[in-house]
Input
Amino acid sequence: MKVGSLAAFGLVVHRELRLSFRRPEQLLQPLVFFLIVTTLFPLGLNLQLSLLRDMSPGVLWVAALLSSLLSLDSLFKSDADDGTLEQLALCGRELTLIVVAKTLAHWLVTGVALVLVSPLVGIALGIPAAAFATMMLSLAVGTLTLSWLGAIGAALTVGLKRGNVLLSLIVLPLAMPLLIFGAGATDRAISGESTAGALYFLAALCVFTCTLAPFAATAALRITIE
Amino acid sequence: MWTWFYKLASPPYVYAAAAALLPWFCTLALVTIGYGLVDGLAFAPPDYQQGDAFRIIYVHAPSAWMSLFAYTTMAVAGAIALIWRIKIGHAVAAATAPIGASFTLLALITGSLWGRPMWGTYWAWDPRLTSELILLFLYVGVMSLRSAFEDPARGDRAAALLAIVGVVNVPIIHYSVVWWNSLHQAATVAKLGKPEMSASMLVPLLSMLLGFMLFFGAVLCMRLQGEVLNRERQARWIREAVK
Output
């Protein structure tokens, strides 16, 4: 059967989404982790609400980064273990197309879920409702960028037994600019300043990684699977 | 005419060349660093604002430059090895990584020692400092990725790719003092036109920079010989070379 490139892309995305929803606990675990980490900060620091509000953007973003990392490990791993990834690489399609499809599907189930849960955390951390729009927008753009950076890291560590820690070691340094501008945008929104600068920067980072990361991740997969 | 260039891809030639260059690099590095240290620490005039504390620049600035230079070298060597499948590139990249990481660490340590009397703190979360710290983490990531694979050839290529991806950080570090309002002083030496530094201070600094480059060359020659020996241990020419 002959399938066009776009249809193949859709099929891979569809397959990834179906696989994720078959195992809902894998979807929920990073979200629960996100909630637990953000609860730990107020408990451990014993802060007043005003202090908490100053710290909340940083806490929110660090928790979001860590919980996205948890799910990144499985981006290529299960497909590499059972040989599906090799078949996909050999099926005659551009491997880049498959990498893009898998990464987008990963973002749809992890990043978007994180964005949807974030108002709950925002309320708990005392972020005013007026800042929610900026917070969610910056998280949406930020998690997409992180999915791309993570795709490179996951592709580089896919064949390794203990790739999990190494993945964090590789991805977190590259993700630091995200944290700076993402938390910066949320922080400005809380204090009622203009958020455009930080959001534009986040968007620029997102466009930059969306354009180049698929090729880097494909090259990494070609090195690690073969 | 190009044969000398093609020879650079051959391990026996590189091994011999590194051995031949090593004494030159060592001697010249000793001379330039020796002159730079004596002139910089003893004879250069004290800064009108910072007094004698500014003299740490003679170690700090060259090691910071070298941290970026070594990273670029590593990434370029990795790219050459990936694109043209020249194995010696991986040996160069593997030999460069620990040297670059050491320079980065040295730049961070001397920087915080300088920061204490000048800014009143050892560490500030400032763009220049933070991006230099990220560079250190990148070096660590590249080195651990290389050693994580059971198949060394695969580890080499994965590390080369990560090094290339990490290159985005190099311009960020270089321009961080220009793009953001930073506690760190702006570029004073590497400026087109007139440098904002008097010659009596600048000459020893440039001598130190040259010395650090030569020192880097010397350590690279040593480490490269080790890398080549380790990688080519099955080859016949090794037995003759080591005899």
